[in-house]
Design goal:
Number of helices: 11
CATH topology of the largest domain: Jelly Rolls
Strand content: 15-25%
CATH architecture of the largest domain: Sandwich
Strand order of the largest sheet: 1-8-3-6-9
Shape: globular
CATH superfamily of the largest domain: Regulatory protein AraC
Helix content: 40-55%
Radius of gyration: 20 Å
Largest sheet: 5 strands, antiparallel
Number of domains: 2
Order of helices and strands: EHEEEEEEEHEHHHHHHHHH
Number of strands: 9
Amino acid sequence: MNRKNTIPIIDSCSIDLNNNTTIHIDDLKEYIIKHQDMVFPHKHNFFHFVLFTKGSGEHIIDFNHYNIEPYQIYFMVPGQVHTWNFTGDEDGYVVNFSIDYFQSFLLRTDYLERFSFLQGKIEHLIFVLAEQYRPQATAILDQILSAKAERLPEDYIRTLLLQFILYISIATEKDHQEHSTPYNHKIFNSFQQLVEQQFKSTKLPSVYADQLFITPNHLNAICKSYIGQSAGEIIRNRIVLEAKRLLVNRNLNITEIADELQFKDNSYFTKFFKKSAGLTPEEFRKQL
């Protein structure tokens, strides 16, 4: 199979159409006008987040629909599929930055991995900022807008963006961290990273448990305590999500997708998909 066709990229958005830099920040209303021809399922090859200060309609991330509300913020990582259906009254901020934006700036190249909302996990992607955090969050984004307009040094802009990410982390993750142990948190994050790396080839929770040096029952208990799902469900959901992303690309037939996801045959893949998604791959593709 031609490898270039295995990733269903409908469109790869330019981070900055004018300056070809590694970060782009814009007023949301202006951004939507500039990119009104992108209202179809597509992927980015950079980090992307939006903070709505007002608006209505919905946006769709990895085939999940979310209604917009004031001070909702969503984060997307490279590879996620999304589109939107706005009603025209949106306002807020949109920020895109490249995968390696902080690479030469921070000693720890894996620093962003500490933030759950930058890991592409659906349970952490979208939230509404509590009222007490809103003024400071928008103030930092306004500073980034001004710094970009005034062409201030890039490291200054990086510092502001990192400040925003840290502030959002404080605003959204405090309660969760207070109710979890560092050990379990590390195990759960490590399991999610292993699933992301190996879900095509490794489909059994016991194999992941062995790699984490814990029992399958312990792994299940940790997963359920965090998101209410077993380890097997997390693995299956990741496989189905990738299948849906591949189904967006109509250049791939079902057999090629089954092969890409390392199923023994087309029939087994179809049964697996229908059991998890409630419809066959062909039916899902027709819905798109």
